[in-house]
Amino acid sequence: MIRPGSRVLRGGSRAVRWLAGWWMRRGLRTRITVTVGGVAMVALGALAWVATGLIGVTITGAVDAELATAAATVASKLAAGVHETGVTDESVSGISGQVAIRVTDTAGTPLDDDGPLPIDNAQLRLLAAGEPVTAFSSDGPTRWLGVVATVPDGSPRLVLVGANLIGFAAVLRRGAAGLTLAALLAGLGVTLAAWTAVRLALLPVDRMRAAAVTLPPGQRLPVPAAADELHALAVELNELLARRDNASARLERFTGDAAHELRSPVASIRAQAEVAVLHPDPLLVEETLRSVASEAARLSDLLSDLLALARADAGARPPASEVDLAAEARAALLRADPERGNGGGPAGPAMTLSVPVPICAAASPGEVALVLDNLVSNARRYAKSRVRISVLPAGRTVRLMVDDDGPGVPEADRERVFDRFTRLEAGRGGVSGGAGLGLALVHALVVGRGGTVRMTASPCGGARVEVRWPTFQAVE
Q: For residue 474, what pLDDT is reported?
C-alpha cells in the first residue's frame, strides 16, 4: 500500500537529485561565484535587518528619555499637591511633538476627566511595572511611559505620558529600503569581484592546461616562482609528464626489443625450413628438426614471459594466499633438474636448499613458481659449480636468496638487470641464451605483491638475488 505522502517524498527527492546534478554540472568559476555571492547577500541582508532594528531602537530610546523627563516633572507636581486635572492641562512639547499626560489610580481608572485611556489593560499593567509600550491606532504609533507618583495624602497615582512617533514607520521603511538596496548593491559588487578574482586566479591554470596539451615530449611546464598551489600543481604536472615520457620510452623500447627477440627465432626456424625444403638431405633431417624444436621452445618461452609480464603490468593477479616457500623451492629444484633433484652431478652446478624454519609468503603459488624458476634458471646459467637457495624469516617479511659462484654482476649494472630485455655483454654475445626477461618478470611479480628485489654480491663469489615477500600473517 502506498502511503499518502510517499509520492510527494519521491518527487522531492527527485528534485533534490536534479538540483544536485545541475549544480555539479556548473563550472568551477560559476560555483565559486554563486557561493560567494549568495553568502554575501545573506550576510549583508542580515546586517541591513539588524541596522533597521537599531534605527528603531535609537528612535524609541530618544523618545523614552524625553517621556521620562516629562513624567518626572508631572510626578513632582502631583507630590507638591497639584490636582490631577491641573497637571494634564499643561502643555509639554518634545522632539516627537506634543506630549500627552494622563493620570490614573493604581487600578487604571482615569482621574483627569479626559475620557478613557487609549491603551488596553495589558499595556496598562506593563506601564505600571515601569515598562514602556507602543500603542498603535489610526493616528499612528504612540509611545507611552508610566511613573508611579504619591500625592500629599499618601495615595499612589500612575502618571502616563505619551508621544506620537511622528514619521517612525516612514523612517523604518525608508531605512529598511535604503539598507536593503545598499546590501543588494554590495552583494552584486562582491559577486562581480568574486567572478573577476576567480577568473584571474584560474587564468594561469588555463594557460597551464593549454601548454600541457601542445607540449612536445621531453619538455616541461614553466614553474611559477611563488611557492603556492599553482607552483605545486606545475611540479606535479611536470612529474606526471616525466612519467608519461618514461612510460612511452619504455613502451617503445619494449616493443622494439620484443619485435627483435621474436624475429630472431622465427627467422631461424624459417631459414632452416627453407634450406631443408630447397636442399633435402635425409642425413640432416634429424639435426634440422632438433634445431627447429629448440628455436620453437625458445620462442614459446619468450611468448610465455611476455604474456606473464603483460598480466603483471595489468594487475591481473589472483588473491594472495599462504604459500609454503620451502615446498615451492624444492619443486623448483626438481623442475630445474628432475634427474638429480637436490644432489648435484656432472650435468650442471650443484644445487642446495636451506630452510631453517617453515615460513609462508603472501602470494599465489603460480607467481612463486615463476619467480623461483627464473631465479634458479638464471643462477644455473652463470654458476660455475654450485647454486644455493636460502629461505629465512625477516620479521613481517620472508627472505628468499639465490646465490651462485659465477662471474657476478658489476655494481653499476645491478639495478639495470631488472629492466626488460636487458642483458650484459656476455648475454648479448649469445653465451647466456636468455632474452633478458626473467629478472624483469621476477621484479614485476614480487613488487606487485608489495615485496622488493635487489641484486648484490654473493658470499660464494658470484651474484645474489634477494627477494623479500610480505608474510601471510603480515598481510592479514
A: 52
DSSP state of 417: G
- What pLDDT, in 10s, does the model give residues 44-53? 888 888 888 8
The gap between the terminal CA atoms of the chain, to the nearest Å, is 48
Unique residue bearing C-alpha cell 629444484: 333
Return the number of other C-beta atoms located less than 10 Å from residue 46's C-beta.
11
Gap between the Cα atoms of 266 and 271, Å rounded: 9
CATH topology of domain 317-342+349-475: Heat Shock Protein 90 (3.30.565)
Would you kindly state where each structural domain of the chain is located, as residue ranges?
A: 80-166, 217-316, 317-342+349-475
| Nearest CA-CA partner of 302 in 434, 427, 446 | 434
Check: pTM over 0.85? Answer yes or no.
no
Q: How many Cα atoms sit within 13 Å of 339 on the Cβ side? A: 4
Residue 468: its H or E element: strand 463-470
The residues, ordered by sequence, that sit 6+ positions from 455 with a Cβ below 8 Å of its Cβ are 409, 414, 415, 417, 418, 439, 463, 464, 465, 466
DSSP-assigned states of every residue in 373-397: HHHHHHHHHH-SSEEEEEEEEETTE
C-alpha 390/C-alpha 285 separation (Å) is 45
Cα distances from 429 to residues 396, 423, 433, in angstroms, run 41, 9, 9
The domain 80-166: what is its CATH number?
3.30.450
- Give the number of other Cβ atoms within 10 Å of residue 239's Cβ: 11
Domain 217-316 CATH class label: mainly alpha
